[in-house]
Amino acid sequence: xxxxxxxxxxxxxxxxxxxxxxxxxxxxxxxxxxxxxxxxxxxxxxxxxxxxxxxxxxxxxxxxxxxxxxxxxxxxxxxxxxxxxxxxxxxxxxxx
Amino acid sequence: xxxxxxxxxxxxxxxxxxxxxxxxxxxxxxxxxxxxxxxxxxxxxxxxxxxxxxxxxxxxxxxxxxxxxxxxxxxxxxxxxxxxxxxxxxxxxxxxxxxxxxxxxxxxxxxxxxxxxxxxxxxxxxxxxxxxxxxxxxxxxxxxxxxxxxxxxxxxxxxxxxxxxxxxxxxxxxxxxxxxxxxxxxxxxxxxxxxxxxxxxxxxxxxxxxxxxxxxxxxxxxxxxxxxxxxxxxxxxxxxxxxxxxxxxxxxxxxxxxxxxxxxxxxxxxxxxxxxxxxxxxxxxxxxxxxxxxxxxxxxxxxxxxxxxxxxxxxxxxxxxxxxxxxxxxxxxxxxxxxxxxxxxxxxxxxxxxxxxxxxxxxxxxxxxxxxxxxxxxxxxxxxxxxxxxxxxxxxxxxxxxxxxxxxxxxxxxxxxxxxxxxxxxxxxxxxxxxxxxxxxxxxxxxxxxxxxxxxxxxxxxxxxxxxxxxxxxxxxxxxxxxxx
Lengths: 96, 485
Description:
The structure holds two protein chains of two kinds.
Chain A: H1 5-14, H2 23-38, H3 74-78, E1 84-85, E2 88-89
Antiparallel strand pairs in A: 1-2
Helix pairs in contact in A: 1-2
Chain B: H1 7-15, H2 21-39, E1 42-45, H3 47-62, E2 73-77, H4 104-111, E3 115-120, H5 154-161, E4 167-171, H6 178-184, E5 187-190, E6 211-215, H7 218-228, H8 246-249, E7 258-262, H9 271-286, E8 290-294, H10 302-317, H11 336-347, H12 350-363, H13 368-392, E9 395-399, H14 415-419, H15 426-431, E10 435-443, E11 446-453, H16 459-472
Parallel strand pairs in B: 2-3, 2-4, 7-8, 7-9
Antiparallel strand pairs in B: 1-3, 4-6, 5-6, 5-10, 9-11, 10-11
Helix pairs in contact in B: 2-3, 5-6, 7-16, 10-12, 10-13
């Protein structure tokens, strides 16, 4: 199955990626070839097979005591932020 | 020459006071300054910090401490967060990112007294098999500067091969330690999933990612892995089982060891490459091991399985890069959606965007069952194949890669051809198994790797088998021309 330009535009939107005019035909071709390549999986007989999400058996989510384990580092973390004001992250206006 | 000595030899010289860690550190910093411009293996140098750490190591040793890595210089792959030092992950997205904390791997090696010289170049977000997707440009292979060093830990591999550090760290999601180790003639270890903490290691595909080591011998790798491995409560998939004494097991005899020859790994393998593996088997037989033929019938589906599972996990993991809290932000966004889209569109490179979109597609409504769920089922079939193989053999053996290093530019425009490079390494990641690549000879003057794969938590046995091979051969001691002195 080959993807169309519209398919790739939709995927890019879902992934929140802007794709330039120059990039678009390259992705239409290469994503189509990847989708066709992984379609090989349909050859495998998997009717009674349980999907495997984790490489080791018998692992489960560990719990810990509900106690404070982290101190406040927001000043250190916000050094990396593109725009900060009064300790808050600044983004374009969302509510008119 | 200092840079050709093993960790054990350096430790004895340091303890005897024949050299200091400061001298050793200066020696490697000098090599980086002289040799790295042609290789592009190191993208951040932390000389001042390294010399301070080396001086501290010298003081600890003077006070009687004798830890094996105390004062030994290393380079970290730039995927590991290093407090106060840029951690770029090879991406424009994180070109300006100063990590606010250390990864557990970094903390552990720091505590062991190892000295960080700098950070190694890598494929962007560890997505690549040639180190050509880095925002900082390709890494060159020290054996031939027109060839790739492999990827994604290409900078780490080239740096270890060129002796720019005593050892380097790497990560392996589909072969990213073993494949570049093979292509540059060094020893690379990908431990069992969960053996080494992933905390502070920038995530690509969380059910596959594992940290490991690239070194010039299995004996050196054993010492490093000893310091890296172990339970970490900060990694929710870290495994809480005791770490065996890896160096102590290196010399165990191999008599009676059953080595499984992976039939599928030889189909279509060029005769000269296959001959090197058969030569290696002869050495193993002379060391007392037996060989048996084993088959992994679903292995041919490992690459398509991986290219569903890994992109799916990557599309989820990389959604954190939004241009708001850290990383690249586009200029003059019109609104929030435009900010997200252009920050990500401009901040990520071509291959990263391709994988995010592949993952988004296979997870999207209507395609989830056919691709993602199907791949998770085939993943179990592949894992079951390995389990059955380990009923016949203690270790599995085969080539690490189908070919030696290829030319820079040869495969970058064809993703499927590039993906097929990892055909022999991906299986171990899908099944969470430990794997090791060690040098086993040359084809056209370029190194080839022998791969050992073992059951979960068999690192000791893998290192033992690799070390015994390296006491019977000298492939691992070969140095690329121009890097001996």
